TrEMBL record:
<protein>
    <recommendedName>
        <fullName>Threonine--tRNA ligase</fullName>
        <ecNumber>6.1.1.3</ecNumber>
    </recommendedName>
</protein>
<keyword id="KW-0547">Nucleotide-binding</keyword>
<feature type="domain" description="Aminoacyl-transfer RNA synthetases class-II family profile">
    <location>
        <begin position="226"/>
        <end position="488"/>
    </location>
</feature>
<dbReference type="GO" id="GO:0046872">
    <property type="term" value="F:metal ion binding"/>
</dbReference>
<dbReference type="Pfam" id="PF03129">
    <property type="entry name" value="HGTP_anticodon"/>
</dbReference>
<dbReference type="InterPro" id="IPR018163">
    <property type="entry name" value="Thr/Ala-tRNA-synth_IIc_edit"/>
</dbReference>
<feature type="binding site">
    <location>
        <position position="465"/>
    </location>
    <ligand>
        <name>Zn(2+)</name>
    </ligand>
</feature>
<keyword id="KW-0648">Protein biosynthesis</keyword>
<dbReference type="InterPro" id="IPR036621">
    <property type="entry name" value="Anticodon-bd_dom_sf"/>
</dbReference>
<dbReference type="GO" id="GO:0005524">
    <property type="term" value="F:ATP binding"/>
</dbReference>
<dbReference type="InterPro" id="IPR045864">
    <property type="entry name" value="aa-tRNA-synth_II/BPL/LPL"/>
</dbReference>
<dbReference type="Pfam" id="PF07973">
    <property type="entry name" value="tRNA_SAD"/>
</dbReference>
<keyword id="KW-0862">Zinc</keyword>
<dbReference type="GO" id="GO:0005737">
    <property type="term" value="C:cytoplasm"/>
</dbReference>
<dbReference type="InterPro" id="IPR012947">
    <property type="entry name" value="tRNA_SAD"/>
</dbReference>
<dbReference type="InterPro" id="IPR002314">
    <property type="entry name" value="aa-tRNA-synt_IIb"/>
</dbReference>
<keyword id="KW-0067">ATP-binding</keyword>
Length: 601
């Protein structure tokens, strides 16, 4: 794994986000100088740089980016200060109409009535350029010591709506020093190397197919092995945790999702209805309505609770075509879903149990994480305020029970209840949305769920929604990038490659392969008539964790020459020593590839 934060920390006279936002303005002024008919969208600072959207008469090329950079440097030398101007809404509209900036006029209408309308200007003479913007900005380009680079151009729908016109988005970044910029560019190269789509092709892991539709992943055998191992690990943990498996249909009557509230609050993400037997049906966007129906199938007693039901259930959500991305944003995915039905007295311990399970799973893959308390959204929610407050407090209490710090995500809850969201940090220092625990008092009300209390009264259960891995597609796609395709032994598609030095050593290598297979390992016996070095190169390319190379001496002594992934060094050890070591690596789900123990002399 590479350093999580590769960019040296250097303090500047302004926050880095302010520098980047100002550089986006500088870039826009250079674009208009080179392309006078340019129309401007928005140009914010983002996590690793900035972008600006443009409506231009012709597509931009890499050569154009270099021209824009050159023009930016020229304009910066003639910008002794950046000036702020506050105007009335009518004055702003008149100014934008004079400039012919239609997108900016639309942007003006998005500014709340109680906020100031401000413009920022830089440059002198013919280079003077202004933009509708709330700021803040640096004081001057001319007297500032910093570096920037324009990186690439992408398409982006105006305001993210695929029904609007596609604009050209220029991405760039800025830092206070060249050292920072160089480190960032090196980090970006590592990101490219680890891109799960690139590795998916190189390692024959998965594919997507236009003839099947965008957003649907086809798992190849190599990735199927990884998924199977992860699923088995998941089920083993859940069985020990008292969960029982359930399975629910992929298609249900539309009325089911009306009861659950998904049709009302989630319809834009649902696939269109299918007319069957004069009734509308939908593919499911969630598993929870099906679990509620199973609960409701018969009467329940407090003695049965808590009920913990788990399902690796495939769901379907209509993501916009502009955001579909490999395995990370898809339209059909398998969610490691589970629902807990419990009494109020059991709630805190049940949530705490899920928090412990999340920690076990994420730490097994080597992930650090942060947890966030997501509270009630401002609109499109169901349930009374008192119910939301009770659910939110239950999450706080459970987190305190397991000493889990929570950061606040105001308004980030689901439409039916608050939740704890987990964000993991990968080997490149990037955060990924992952596990979630949602406390729901509303669906039991909507489905009229009950249990018989000790006094004989009928009471509502509390429903806890939770997903540990989240989407298997998204989790595994992120895992490919986290490990860079170099999977640990326990989930590697091929765990050991056995390579004879010459053809006459094939029988011994066949015996080694059979021994490993009997011990439950996935082995590739490379016994075909080809040069040993070619086989080693192939195994290295396939990122096989261990290669066992054997010739006449190894066959006589019962040893193997062990070569680890990514190294040229070999160590000769008894085969039994290697088998014991690799078995421990697999069974403990180790993330490391230690050297084999050297042979005793």
């Amino acid at each position: 794994m590479i350093q999580a934060d590769p960019v040296p920390q250097v303090e500047g006279p302004f926050p880095l986000s302010t520098l980047r936002h100002s550089t986006a303005h500088l870039m826009a002024s250079a674009v208009q100088k080179l392309f006078p008919k340019a129309q401007f969208g928005f140009g914010p600072a983002i996590e690793h740089g900035f972008y600006y959207d443009f409506d231009l008469p012709e597509p931009l090329t890499d050569k154009d980016l270099r021209k824009i950079e050159k023009e930016m440097r020229r304009i910066a030398k003639r910008s002794p200060k950046i000036e702020k101007e506050t105007v009335s809404r009518d004055e702003a509209r008149a100014k934008l109409q004079e400039w012919g900036q239609e997108y900016k006029i639309e942007g003006l209408d998005l500014i709340p009535d109680d906020e100031d309308i401000t413009f920022y200007f830089h440059g002198e003479g013919d280079d003077r350029w202004g933009d509708l913007c709330e700021g803040p900005h640096v004081d001057s380009f001319q007297d500032l010591d910093y570096v920037f680079k324009l990186q690439h151009v992408a398409g982006a729908y105006w305001r993210g709506d695929e029904n609007n016109k596609m604009l050209q988005r220029i991405y760039g970044t800025a830092f206070w020093t060249q050292e920072q910029l160089d480190a960032h560019l090196e980090w970006l190269e590592e990101v490219k190397k680890r891109d799960h789509r690139k590795l998916g092709t190189e390692l024959d892991l998965f594919s997507t197919h236009g003839e099947a539709g965008a957003g649907f992943v086809f798992w190849h055998p190599n990735l199927g092995v990884i998924r199977r191992e992860i699923e088995q690990f998941w089920w083993d943990l859940h069985t020990r945790g008292g969960y029982k498996p359930v399975y629910t249909p992929h298609v249900s009557r539309e009325s089911l999702f009306a009861v659950s509230g998904h049709l009302e609050n989630y319809s834009e993400m649902m696939y269109a209805p299918m007319e069957l037997d004069s009734l509308p049906y939908r593919v499911k966007p969630m598993n929870c309505p099906g679990h509620a129906l199973i609960y409701k199938d018969r009467g329940r007693s407090y003695r049965e609770l808590p009920l913990r039901w788990a399902e690796l259930g495939t769901v379907y959500r209509y993501e916009k075509s502009g955001v579909v991305h490999g395995m990370l944003r898809v339209r059909g995915f398998t969610q490691d879903d589970a629902h807990i039905f419990c009494t109020p007295d059991q709630l805190a311990e049940e949530i705490a149990g899920v928090c412990r399970l999340v920690d076990t799973v994420l730490s097994t893959f080597g992930f650090e994480y942060k947890a966030y308390l997501a509270t009630r959204p401002s609109e499109k929610t169901i349930g009374e305020d008192a119910i939301w407050e009770k659910a939110t407090q239950s999450l706080r209490d459970a987190a305190a029970k397991v000493n889990l710090p929570l950061e606040l995500d105001e308004g980030g809850g689901a439409f039916y209840g608050p939740k704890i969201d987990y964000k993991i940090k990968d080997a490149l220092g990037r955060e990924w949305q992952n596990s979630t625990i949602q406390c729901d008092f509303n669906l039991p009300e909507r489905f009229d769920l009950h249990y018989t209390a000790p006094d004989g009264s009928q009471q509502r259960p509390i429903m806890v929604h939770r997903a540990i891995l989240g989407s298997l597609e998204r989790f595994v796609g992120g895992l490919i990038e986290h490990f860079g395709g170099k999977f640990p032994v326990w989930i590697a598609p091929t765990q050991v490659a056995v390579i004879p030095i010459r053809e006459e050593h094939a029988d011994y290598c066949r015996t080694l392969s059979e021994r490993l297979q009997e011990a439950g390992f996935r082995v590739e016996a490379m016994l075909e008539a080809a040069h040993m070095n070619k086989k080693i190169k192939h195994a290295q390319k396939e990122q096989v964790p261990y290669m066992l190379i054997a010739g006449e001496r190894e066959a006589e002594d019962g040893t193997v020459a062990v070569r680890r992934r990514g190294t040229r060094e070999q160590s000769v050890v008894p085969f039994e020593t290697f088998l014991k070591m690799v078995t421990e690596l697999r069974d403990t789900k180790s993330l490391e590839l230690p050297d084999a123990e050297p042979e005793s002399v």
